[in-house]
């Protein structure tokens, strides 16, 4: 009995330290299930398109639409969560994604990819503001960074295993069949997640106040506006080479399976830093961690440009993983700067503005890639330097 009581107290302390309760744990299981399916194939879609003869422009269009949907879906996703509660919102978003997986399977073509992504991105894009607002609702303010950090950590676990499994499928069965089998697995895991969320996520006890988009934006604090501007710049640094990273790696002679290993290295580096960085950010302040993550964003394209062997690519991907060092801090700042009466919609409006602007980076990235990979990567690094300087200057100003 004493051992059981000791174990129970140990679990209670651990769950408190990691910001785990019934609601956040259920959400983490759903994130893990859906991510485990999607990550088997979603990062190989540029190569899938290339296998069908898609041009560089069409691959750029695909990446631009992917980014734009992340923007367009964010605000209604947050609004729906505020209006109807987390349970109905999460289940609805999951069902839309399942429909997208089916469409990807039955339409094996570039057009099928473009059409299906309007549906299969529903979970990741619609649900993002809802996951933030659930953390804010379920946890005290002093645990927000850890709650969001645990979400980020769980999201990355499938990114370690999924691309490796997907890479093996693609190497053995070809890009087309490998991607479609991965999508079929996503259907099964999506059904499991929708049942879990429908049965166990609590309804919102008190509906949030609802505001129009323009009113939400006028409610942004000066701190949130500064963070948004800097975030837009650093996401340009990320977006310019984003759709080309896997293609660049495979052009250096690595196989699809080895790309999966590189992505696992990236996610492993991210996972190692999530918990300690989240705990430190909650305790000592979040701004310095955001600056650190901006630096890593900037270093990645430089490291990639210098990488022509698997070991060098592994170093570059590890740096890319370390950019997550300050992500829980940045996301918790968005939550804390948003008004409590419309948190889901505010987070959605933030991402709508950010990703709508950053979408143009996909087209710019495609154009720069035509001039040469090094041009794309060096321009991205230059924008990263600018973003870091802008954010650091604003931080110093507000600290004085």
From the helix content, strand content and strand pairing, which structural class follows? mainly alpha
> Biggest sheet, in brief?
none
Assigned CATH architecture = Up-down Bundle
CATH topology: Growth Hormone, Chain: A
Order of helices and strands: HHHHHHHHHHHHHHHHHHH
* Overall strand count: 0
- Which radius of gyration do the C-alpha atoms yield? 20 Å
CATH superfamily: MFS general substrate transporter like domains
**Contiguous helical run count:** 19
CATH class descriptor: Mainly Alpha
- Morphology: globular
Task: Describe the secondary structure blueprint for this structure.
Elements (H helix, E strand, L loop, with lengths): L1 H16 L4 H17 L6 H7 L4 H29 L1 H21 L3 H11 L1 H17 L5 H30 L1 H26 L12 H6 L3 H21 L2 H7 L4 H29 L2 H19 L4 H13 L4 H11 L5 H16 L1 H12 L1 H27 L1
Helix pairs in contact: 2-7, 2-8, 2-9, 4-5, 4-6, 4-7, 4-17, 4-18, 5-6, 5-7, 5-9, 7-8, 7-17, 8-9, 8-13, 8-16, 11-14, 11-17, 11-18, 11-19, 13-15, 14-15, 14-19, 18-19
